[in-house]
Design brief:
Length: 199
Amino acid sequence: MSPRRAAALRDDDLSLRDHLIATAERMISEGGTAGLTVRGIAREAGVADGVLYNHFADKEELLAQAFRAHVRSVEAGLGPLPEPGTGSVRANLAAYVSHGLAMHRAILPAMAGLIGRPEVLARFAAAGETGEDWRDRLLAYLRAERELGRLAPDARVEAAAAMVVGVCHEAVLSLLFSGTEPERDVDDLVAALLAGIRP
């Protein structure tokens, strides 16, 4: 281990790769992704610029991993989501919608700097595991409730999940392009969804 690398990791149990991801994630959390450079990440991490290329194919891979870490961190701060079969479907679905809206709002500053970087977003999408993302968990929740008989046996839960995701995306796009988020009544949205999928 080089002296510079040792200094960067002195008080940390992370590998250098994880240290670089954590550093970039912290920078994204504090200032978004616009203007984030390899040099800036390396300096903040306490390593030479070229060290990043020993652990990542390129800057895009590092940014994708850091953005994924940022999304996970945001979601962890929002608390757990309801489990199938607990509480009421109406309240649980409202919790999923509220969670999705809050998550999308929170990641908007980081996402805004990546809109013109499709290669980073493509790697972000490819780096995820099935079932890990909020959308996957929403769909799994709806499928489980259908299996439990708390939704209609022929409920089109994929379409319902797509509608909820669309509402969250619309809110973010409105913020991004007009600076305002449309008024959303989560209870009304849930009522409209359940009218089509409840037994």
